[in-house]
Amino acid sequence: MLKEFNIACFCINHTDIILLEFLLSVIEKTTDTQWKLTSGILGDIAIFNTDELEGIEHYEKAINGLSPPICITYSSKPISADKQLHLNKPLRSSDFIVLINRILDENSDLGKEVTDKRPRASNTIINDDKNNQSHPKTLKKNYNVKRTSLEYLYNILSENKASNSSPIKVTFQNINIYIDFKYNQYISNHHLSDLIEVIKTDVNLLDISNISNNEISKLKERIKPSPLSELIWYSTLMGSNGYLNKDINEQTLLHLNRWPNFKTLIHLPRHVTLAAFMTKNTCTLEEISKQTLIPLDDIISFVNANKAMGYLEIGINQNQSTFIGIKKDIHERNLFSKLYNKLLSAIKY
Questions:
Q1: Which residues are 282's β-sheet partners?
Q2: By the 8 A CB rule, do 139 and 127 touch?
Q3: How many Å apart are CA 347 and CA 345, to the nearest integer?
Q4: C-alpha–C-alpha distance, residues 98 and 107, integer Å
Q5: Cβ neighbours of residue 60 under 8 Å, at least 6 residues apart?
Q6: 46 C-beta neighbours (distance < 10 Å), count
Q7: What's the Cα-to-Cα distance from 12 to each of 194, 222, 236, rounded to whole Å?
Q8: How far apart are CA 21 and CA 154, in angstroms?
Q9: Cα–Cα distance measured from residue 172 to residue 150, given in angstroms and rounded to the nearest whole number
Q10: Could you read off the pLDDT of 155-192 as tens digits, one per residue?
């Protein structure tokens, strides 16, 4: 059985609500729990912004009520969590998760049991052509469960991205990434290729906190910001691990509606081949693999990255697949490339 919990928020700002939703989704994926956020209605747990007078009034009313919920204060004034349940501002993911785990450990009767209706991960078998062994037989689905930490975080927060959204700091071990959603930028002392540890890590291991606009401005004076799109592209490309975006299956027709900017986006030669094919054709994943002779896992990573960037058009009717015969051109380019490499090797020796 699944246990459901309600958390009521009093005087909590929009940006913190978004971060809370993300953190609760992380907890859901690692426990048999389900969480709902409400505003102004007491639940199993209640969080009160006691920096505001209205928040203090709600807090005092709740703790003096007949059936008080578990009350958490949230303020910029540091308070020892041993004395009362408290979260310091700015909201930090590690503090919140530790506090929730403590509450669940100390209150086994909290929440209510509900039927688990969450979708289960499943694999779909694709009929493989005996003459083409270039791609695996199993198409992994439910990519949203396995998606990379940064791409997942970006999608959660970008759904409610407003001009006044606070920047965030993402920390893993000694690596910091600062994300400014207002200007679609990120800042880091590390090169994009060095962020692979953060990209592939479990979201539970990330420490995520809000920072002020003033802090992000000062960082930009010292470190040149980079387009957030480059981080999203790279994190999705490198972190898909063969898991497909939840909106796509083996029957989905795929087409690129624009050419990725390979001048700035990290890529391999096979990605250029895929872009050339997919901008001119509309077909399924298996058809793309058969026509280009590129392994299915590589195609899935490329498709996921373009989906995250908004470059992908999605259809549903496999019978409408269209080809314009560029398979021969691709094979000719591959052959030319092999001959060129052999010639280059001969010149070197």
A1: 322
A2: no
A3: 5
A4: 14
A5: none
A6: 25
A7: 35, 32, 32
A8: 13
A9: 11
A10: 655 554 544 567 888 888 888 999 888 888 999 988 77
Contacts of 321 (CB under 8 A, 6+ apart): 253, 281, 282, 283, 284, 287
DSSP class of residue 127? P
Q: With beta carbons less than 8 A apart as the criterion, state whether 228 and 265 touch.
A: no
Following CA atoms 10, 16, 18, 21 in sequence, which dihedral angle do they give, to the nearest 10 degrees?
-70
Contact 164, 13 (CB under 8 A): no
SS3 168: strand
Strand partners, 227: 185
CB 279 within 8 A of CB 259: yes
Contact between residue 150 and residue 170 where contact means Cβ atoms under 8 Å apart: yes
Instruction: Write out pLDDT tens, residues 47-101.
Output: 999 999 999 999 999 988 877 889 999 998 877 655 679 998 888 877 888 898 8
The residue with tokens 């469960």 is 145
110 contacts 34 by C-beta, under 8 angstroms: no
Residues facing residue 47 across a β-bridge: 9, 72
Which residues, 6+ apart, have CB-to-CB distance to 205 below 8 Å? 172
Neighbours of 32 (CB within 10 A): 11
